[in-house]
Design the sequence.
């Protein structure tokens, strides 16, 4: 791309053990202020006065929010409040919809991803996304589904051997390797729904993104598959910034470090998750989390 985004540091291949006990989470005593002083709490991705619309209908209104490295931020709010549109703006998926447009800025490691000359495909390499319903490519094998994202590298595309290593690493990090290691040449549609969603996460991880966006990734999954994806999300914070849109407030409480509440396209409140759910700072947040609307 003519205006290159900052390089994402390479990470060594290897298995990431899935957390199975919430007790292994960071201590609740580690508040948002304490995290802010941590060297790993730098801002990785942020918006500044971001608005997004479809034609004349505004879906996101003047949102400024920062997503910090190695943290999970959950975005909650009622249907139609702009959560998914905000998420799609973060890696320029919003602009793929006819009549869609944005105002304001989105910056990744201090570079505006909407700047002139920045290739949106390259942006999506650094800011991966997984959608609500599993979207494996039906004509591709499990292995080729994971490797599909590497096609954007062009001449820099890894060799076949290197691709195999990247595929294994991505499948291990998505907690799927042990289940499919002997089926890599099988069709991806033969997998269960939960496995397909973890395959889509592996496909996003194959390009080693700095940020992973998850748009209600467990909405169509059974409880056991939901648990596996939540454990995976909790584990991925070790390596990257994760942003998850969810209708499930219990899920937000389980997996996130910070939670943002949106209403009518506006960002109402952003706080560390425990504080937002126990002592929200805005009466609209309290009304939503106590079930008075939404």
Sequence:
């Amino acid at each position: 791309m003519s205006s290159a985004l900052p390089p994402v540091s390479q990470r060594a291949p290897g298995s990431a053990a899935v957390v199975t006990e919430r007790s292994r989470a960071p201590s609740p005593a580690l508040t948002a202020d304490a995290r802010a002083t941590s060297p790993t709490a730098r801002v990785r991705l942020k918006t500044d006065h971001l608005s997004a619309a479809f034609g004349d209908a505004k879906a996101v209104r003047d949102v400024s929010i920062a997503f910090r490295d190695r943290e999970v931020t959950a975005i909650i709010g009622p249907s139609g409040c702009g959560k998914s549109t905000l998420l799609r703006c973060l890696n320029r998926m919003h602009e793929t919809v006819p009549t869609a447009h944005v105002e304001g800025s989105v910056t990744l490691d201090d570079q505006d991803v909407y700047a002139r000359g920045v290739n949106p495909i390259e942006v999506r390499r650094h800011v991966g996304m997984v959608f609500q319903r599993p979207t494996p490519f039906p004509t591709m094998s499990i292995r080729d589904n994971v490797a599909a994202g590497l096609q954007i590298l062009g001449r820099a595309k890894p060799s076949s051997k290197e691709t195999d290593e990247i595929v294994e690493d991505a499948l291990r990090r998505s907690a799927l390797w042990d289940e499919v290691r002997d089926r890599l040449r099988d069709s991806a549609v033969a997998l269960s729904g939960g496995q397909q969603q973890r395959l889509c996460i592996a496909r996003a991880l194959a390009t080693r993104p700095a940020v992973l966006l998850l748009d209600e990734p467990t909405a169509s999954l059974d409880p056991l598959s939901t648990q596996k994806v939540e454990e995976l999300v909790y584990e991925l914070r070790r390596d990257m910034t994760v942003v998850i849109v969810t209708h499930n407030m219990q899920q937000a409480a389980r997996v996130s470090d910070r939670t943002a509440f949106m209403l009518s396209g506006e960002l109402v409140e952003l706080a560390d998750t425990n504080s937002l759910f126990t002592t929200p700072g805005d009466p609209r947040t309290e009304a939503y989390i106590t079930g008075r609307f939404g």
